[in-house]
Amino acid sequence: MSDNPAPTDATSDETLTEEDVYEVLEEVIDPELGLDFVSLGLVYDVNIEGSEVYVTFTLTTPACPIGPQVSEQMREFVGDMPGVTGVHPKMVFDPAWSPEMMTEDAKFALGF
After folding, report:
1. Peptide bond before 95: cis, by omega within 30 degrees of 0?
2. Residue 29, φ and ψ in degrees, nearest 5
3. Distance, CA of 52 to CA of 32 (rounded, Å)
4. Which of 21, 33, 72, 77 has a Cα at 20 to 30 A from 86?
5. What pTM was estimated for this model as a whole?
6. What is the CATH number of the domain that holds 105?
7. What angle do CA 57, 11, 20 make, to 5 degrees?
C-alpha cells in the first residue's frame, strides 16, 4: 500500500493561477517605502510552467541594495504555496521603474 504525498492532492484541488501568485507577492514589502512590491508596480510578470513559478521584478533604482533580500522573500512566500516546487525570481531594470507604475492606492499613500 503506497500513499502519494500531499503536493499531488494540492494541485488536483485547485490550479495555481497568476492571480494567486500576485496575491502572495503582496507580502513582499519594500522596507524603505513600507508598501508591497505589487502595489508599487515592481512585479513585472508572473509565469507559471507546471509547478515552477517565474517572477520578473525590478527595484525602484538599480542602486537599491535589497535585491537579494527580495528574491529570497519571493522564493519563501511563493514556494510555500501548494503545488509549487520551484520559484525563480529574475531582477531586471528594463523597462526602468517609475512612480506611474504604482497602483492608485500606493500613489495616494506616498503622496503622488
Report:
1. yes
2. -110, 135
3. 30
4. 33
5. 0.84
6. 3.30.300.130
7. 35
Name residues of the chain where pLDDT drops below 50. Answer: 1-13
Strand order through the sheet with 86-91: 43-49, 52-57, 86-91
Q: How many domains does the chain have?
A: 1
- Give the DSSP letter of residue 94: S
| 1 belongs to a structural domain | no
In the DSSP assignment, the letter for residue 106 is H
**Residue the block writes with cell 521584478:** 57
Provide the pLDDT for residue 14: 65
* Residue recorded with cell 520559484: 87
> What's the pLDDT score for residue 11?
39
Q: One-letter amino acid identity for 28?
A: V
Domain that holds residue 39: 6-110
For position 12, what pLDDT does the model report? 40
Return the C-alpha cell found at 108: 495616494
